[in-house]
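Example record

One chain of 208 residues, shown exactly as stored in the release files.
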Amino acid sequence: MVCISISIPFVRFLTLFCVQSLDRLDENCKFYKHLTHLFYCKWLHPGTSAKIKSIYIKKNCKDPRHHIRFHGTQRACYEGSSGDKWKPCSNNSCYTCSILRNGFSISKSDPSSMFGPAIYSTIVSSKANLYAKNHNIASRKHAIIVCGVFLGRCACVSRPGDYSAFDTVEATTTSQGGSVNYPETVSYRQRNVVPLGVIIYTRKGWTP
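Predicted structure tokens for this chain:
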């Protein structure tokens, strides 16, 4: 395994914030168009498709140092199904709303994961979709969290392992000699990953 450090300027950490509510983006706004373009361009799993229904974002969340990533997890509420506001629920089984309320927590990650305990996100929307599960709700809509990631001290890695000496690692794909099928961003500093909002979408080619 060859570990190559990426030369980037160090950035200050963003103080973790708690989301009280999210606002639905207008389809004509630039950020909506940017996220939509990224979501569709990076939906890479063959034989599947998705259609965005709405995007909810925290006010004044944009930062030029953000690297946009997607994170899929369990959803157990109907927030985002309609209306112009998303108010995170208090259901402990709704990991989506828990992350929006409290931020990401490495303590809740799986220590047996390929790159150790960390916050996992990806630029590939269909990869995040693999983890976007509806729990005890009857809905054909699904939710993916939009994240802002500060890379900090970063490296590209091709083999599994714990690289927590870095702030972040980018896992290279098998086509590049790595170990993952689709790119993954692995963050070892939870305060470097900020939940910005949620994309609500429907999908085809997957189990509802």
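Notes: The first strand starts at residue 4 and ends at 6.
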